[in-house]
Design brief:
11% of the residues lie in helices and 39% in strands. It has helices at 11-19, 109-112, 153-159, and strands at 33-42, 45-49, 54-58, 79-88, 93-97, 118-127, 130-136, 139-144, 165-174, 179-184. The strands form two sheets. The protein has a five-stranded mixed β-barrel with strand order 1-2-3-5-4. A hairpin with a 2-residue loop joins strand 1 (33-42) and strand 2 (45-49).
Length: 190
């Protein structure tokens, strides 16, 4: 009642509304694959409208490869296929994955790369302890700082940059730990 500056509230109607639960579709379950539309992209992931609910694709579920920011892969309005990882209907939350629709490259890494192979890769990141080199889509190896001899940690950042190509040799592959050890190859040897 605006004229009297009064509001009428009903506790009974709130209780009745809380008892009403929407009917969820049968396909809304763990393991289902569906199509949705990206509604927003955040630093931690992306929200995708899959029909009855909006789910979230965490940054770790976007790609098997390195994801610096979800906006590098997804844009609002984009249509994507997703796999449902978890469903919490009480809180109306759904966890989604895009990467799980593709084969995990670590499951078959030994078919493509063997210890001793010399490969041209791109630097994915330069860290204080070494350089991560992308060898194949979704597969990175570590070129430990000890492989650079007298190069100091500070010089590593000045000598190498993201996107730069490097020739490396595979030393060891440990698929269950998602780890590949690399060695720097002398350019004159290639």
């Amino acid at each position: 009642e605006p004229a009297r500056n009064r509001i009428l509230l009903s506790e009974r109607q709130v209780a009745e509304c809380e008892l009403e639960r929407p009917d969820w579709p049968d396909w809304l379950c763990v393991g289902s694959v569906c199509e949705g539309t990206v509604t927003s992209v955040r630093p931690f992931g992306a929200f995708v409208d899959i029909g009855p609910l909006e789910g979230m694709v965490h940054i770790s579920e976007i790609s098997w490869g390195r994801v610096r920011h979800p906006s590098d892969f997804l844009k609002p309005g984009q249509t994507v296929r997703v796999k449902i990882l978890n469903v919490d209907l009480e809180h109306q939350r759904v966890g989604l994955s895009i990467k799980q629709l593709d084969e995990n490259p670590w499951a078959s890494v030994e078919y493509y790369i063997q210890p001793g192979d010399v490969i041209m890769g791109k630097i994915a990141s330069v860290e204080r302890f070494g350089i991560f080199v992308e060898l194949l889509d979704g597969l990175e190896g570590l070129l430990h700082i000890s492989e650079f001899g007298d190069t100091s940690r500070a010089n590593l950042h000045h000598l190498y940059s993201v996107g730069q190509e490097l020739s490396v040799q595979v030393l060891e592959i440990v698929p269950c730990e998602h780890r590949i050890a690399l060695s720097l190859v002398d350019e004159g040897m290639v």
